[in-house]
Design a protein that fits this description.
homotetramer, 17 strands, Dihydrodipicolinate Reductase, domain 2, alpha/beta, Rossmann fold, 10 helices, globular, nine-stranded mixed sheet, six-stranded parallel sheet, 2 domains
């Protein structure tokens, strides 16, 4: 029987649900030496925390995150708060010797991120950032193919993350559900929220980025603020696009926006190599498109691979061929990898250190958006 | 807090996992008055039952299904056995006053099915058959659109369920994982396994079928039998196609096979009406294709609707727009509907009585396959 | 320089345009020993024939098809009339020793077709039927792959031809543009018009059909007739579906209708073999979908092959890779093959004899529609 | 009967074929007051010019383009030469009072382009540049929708033109078929060849561009030169990506490469507006994807519009609904529009003046590629 690993979660929003679901499911599908136990959830609003705990089976509610961190019966702190609280919580948790799972982006900026990475390393605690898309089986398969050299020399990388939910000027900013529009809570707009995912995947698949040139825009410049009740300037980037050069000589374009009518969460990437190419799309996350130049000439074509077979990453754990999994499963896989990493003493990626690299690219992108210059990634 | 509803499950295979997962998840996502409690799992192989119970958190193991049915602490019997055991278990469970959730197809044939429907009605126990695809949100939306008259008069229905997993002649028949190839356990081949799904959906969306003409084939006529160890004749239909006329005057084609290379579980249906058409595909179950003839002429086209919005059936319970759910969620929805049905005293469909209609069509199809005549649905 | 081959065309409708365009273009793109010369067009309505001749560059107009056949300066008679005139014209043309290109279907029924095939063979004149879809490069490639054994043993064939242009009850029947709805001129409805295409392709790709069972329907049973001005019964089949067994042991479903809302000319076929599968779709005729089971397991997927490369059939004659051709090019290819066949003394398929086989299947299908019995193909 | 318009074509390569085909076909399908007559083709290689003239029916061959321009029987000079000859020929033709149809890009750079635009305007001769993709019916429909305000305020434009034909280092540069790789003949690489198409469409659909920042790359830096026989530096850009800001406030990304394995000629654009979005793709040029936010919420989806109906631009001239046209037809449409423009005294776009705007953007892009700065479009 697996040994318990006690989770203390801070925050109870969308990500709180996704993580809690993963903790519940992981031992049903993966054979693991550890089993997460939902020990406590922490949030300022006691009634909401209580309701969340009831729904998800948390054993207790803890209103003060500092107290949660001090509790002896907590092994892991899971940070699901807005971005502006990541640093303070992480530093305290590291000091208290807790393992830390932190929502993405790691921090408000790379300065904070560097502090956090140093802190967990100094404390020697297991740590991971929830860049969950690495664990979509199709994306993991892409990684495997690239590592095996199936694409050969890489020429191009392109990624977009397109949404359309903030087009209305009536949408307010700030507060519980809309902190992502409030620069004080989020640090940035689409760059930290969406491009950070694209960058994390890209660094993982294609290595480091040398430099970028970016363009940002805030289409709606004032919105009512839910915390002040007043119309306030909007400080975030509504849209951001950038060009990049990777260390391996490949060229890239990245774009993200919340003003692309018709797209809800269209994260796509494509990578073109000498021998083959790969495409993936979050709206059909259970498929991978693959072009193999070594196929016979007249029969070359993009293959739409339905990633539901037992020989696809993670898929032997689920159902039978043809039956797709969804978004939430990427979190289950990430928990499984984290637990296996603990058992085998192998850190599961991305660690805080890994995620700091993404933060540096975000910083360079935002700086380039301000200065209209190419910026070297720090 | 919801009241417990004690589940006793018989069988622990693929469907046992799908149901258990649904019981675990349903209260995390749906606000319900009842909560399934995994009280006992029953299977002849004690070690396997024990392992299954440990993985899924069943409180006890019960080797004899008759004892399970007698237990006072069991409210619901969930039948996940091969088809040839459905009838006996269901009759006993009904007599014991248990609610019954039965895997599809309801029975080996409509004679058995009629007995079972009569038994649960006589006993006055809640009953439902796991035709889970009705609860895929895209399929439910299709039902809503048809009921609203968005398609107008229906002219055509076509459905296929294509697989390719039994092409190899080396595949044996019979035993635990392969009872679906053994006519003694399954009753039929693709007709009861796959076409039954297609028929259930079709009856639900398009009403009753008057008559059919069918063609069946067994491509591999002998396979080693896992229970006898000997090469035995194959008694199931490997492939089956039939033409049908619906009561509403529409024409239909149905086809199923396990010899369609390249398709794992490609259940698709299309329905053409005077005002519009609908297509759905299990390989991308989170999408619905819809053609609306009332759109402006030059702008008419098939819409690919990404069924992940809050105004799509069931989807407000899950994540945010753009983030897809998968196969397993259809079972969660079915459990939610069953529990809500209990709370509201509204039977959740398909009941045994509903599923009997599918059984009658299957019987007519198989008879037509034998006689090469059009057969009226009984 | 190529030698002239003088064409006399009878009829000037949609097919007259498609053929004339092909005659004009073929020598621009194919290196041939013969060049079609548009010598005369024949039609009862002199003004319309004149206008057609002016537009397309026919040297003369001939109101009486019998005179056209007698003309010494005509080498080839191209029959583009309604179906009920094919036989008479073809018999006369054969007797006059003319080569004959006949629009599909060959005849009103297989009795007529047999007469016609016998006549051209007796006369020893080159003959061909315009089943143009064989010459869509993707379809030709499918034929090549099957002949090479890339699919292995064939299990399944399925084809549909779906349209939606006759749903309105206000549409009249008969006369120039609508003779296809008039059973006296067309012989049948979708069976001869659309399924004939599907059957021709199927016989070519998959060999002979043993027997069929069919279902036909006329959804709109009375329409105003353009020739009589009165509401008349509709004699054609609006929809037809049938099951078939091929001589090679494979099973098939075929369906055609003009009541499938949302589809304009959706001719699709799929063929499943032991080693691979193929799909094609007239709405994207420049693509072929191909599944190769010999691909590495985790990388298997349907390939969407963009049939625009120089090593695809016919495509070296056109543009450069990536640039698609369209519907009309299939006729150009058919003319090119016919001219090459003449030069090499190799009959280009489908000959009248080949097309008679399709006619026999159509007859069996229509008979089965009437009798509700399986019918052996004559 | 239409009046003749005498064409003198200079060059006989890929574009010579595309134009000649268009001249031949246009009067078969469009009802026009003018009819192109293929009077003469001009090329230095007399034998090849002769063969081309024979194939395409040119009445004469003229080895010296200056003589062609002087000929009284020529009305229109069609420039199909490599880019480095456009200016000289155009200036001479304008001076001789000839109408001019010039292949794209207009010139080697905007300085040349400005001279050419001034020359044709001074001479008062009809002029047009072959940016043929404007006349793909789906693209024309996109233009119509935007002009009608169906998309509302535009937020985003993105375009790529992806090819993969120069990945091999063995491919030489220069000479007849490969002048596009020779900077002396082409002026630039993908920027003038492919991005020029993207920019022309973008300016047409979305208005002017204020400024750009670009990144260019030459992956293969030396290739054998067909004219010198020696390995020479490659002067063209193999790949180019740029960010842009349009005058209407929208943001754009553009990218082109000949190193995107798996793509032959994948020109795609997408435009996102407040009320709707549009996508188009050259690999399926007969389709337009359209998202209309005014559709009922739960039924919103991208519509795949099959652009083959009579109410789609240009399509009433061709076949029947469902039957697609191809690449070459865009040239036919452009000729038809040019001829109608002459008849109605309305210049057909893009004129030299229009195409100069594209040239200015190309210049700014290439300058930015060199300087790594944002560059204002001149």
């Amino acid at each position: 029987m697996p040994k318990p690993l006690n989770i203390g979660m801070i925050g109870y929003g969308f990500m709180g649900r996704a993580h809690s679901n993963a903790y519940h499911k992981v031992n049903h599908f993966f054979d693991l030496q550890l089993q997460p136990v939902l020990k406590a959830v922490c949030a300022r609003d006691a009634a909401k925390a209580r309701a969340f705990a009831d729904t998800w089976g948390y054993e207790s509610v803890e209103p003060d995150w500092r107290k949660l961190i001090e509790r002896k019966d907590i092994d892991v702190i899971d940070i699901c708060t807005p971005n502006n609280l990541h640093r303070e919580i992480a530093l305290a948790a590291a000091q208290a010797g807790k393992m830390i799972l932190c929502e993405k982006p790691l921090a408000m900026n790379s300065k904070e991120g560097a502090e956090m990475a140093a802190a967990v390393e100094k404390a020697g605690v297991a740590n991971m950032v929830w860049y969950n898309y690495r664990r979509v089986p199709a994306v993991t398969l892409a990684k495997n193919l690239i590592d095996e050299g199936r694409l050969g020399r890489i020429f191009h990388y392109r990624a977009v993350f397109l949404q359309d939910w903030t087009i209305s000027t009536d949408l307010p900013q700030g507060g519980l559900a809309l902190w992502r529009l409030d620069v004080a809570a989020a640090g940035s707009g689409v760059t930290g929220d969406l491009l950070a995912h694209c960058i994390d995947t890209a660094l993982w698949l294609n290595g480091g980025i040398d430099r970028v040139t970016a363009m940002t825009e805030t289409f709606v410049q004032e919105r009512k603020h839910n915390l002040t009740g007043k119309v306030e300037p909007v400080g975030i980037d509504d849209a951001c696009a950038f060009l990049a050069r990777f260390k391996n000589g490949s060229l890239a374009t990245f774009e993200s926006t919340r003003y692309a009518r018709g797209h809800k969460a269209l994260y796509t990437f494509e990578i073109n190599g000498e021998k083959g190419s790969i495409q993936w799309d979050l709206h059909d996350l259970h498929r991978l498109s693959y072009f193999d130049h070594r196929d016979e000439g007249r029969l070359r074509g993009w293959r739409s691979i339905h990633i539901t077979d037992g020989d696809h990453p993670y898929m032997s754990k689920w159902w039978v061929p043809g039956l797709q999994i969804g978004y939430e499963h990427s979190f289950v896989h990430q928990v499984a990898d984290f637990l296996n990493g603990l058992a085998n003493n192998q850190p599961a990626s991305p660690t805080f250190r890994d995620a700091l690299e993404t933060q540096k690219v975000c910083d360079a992108v935002l700086e380039s958006g301000r200065t209209a210059q190419w910026v070297e990634v720090g």
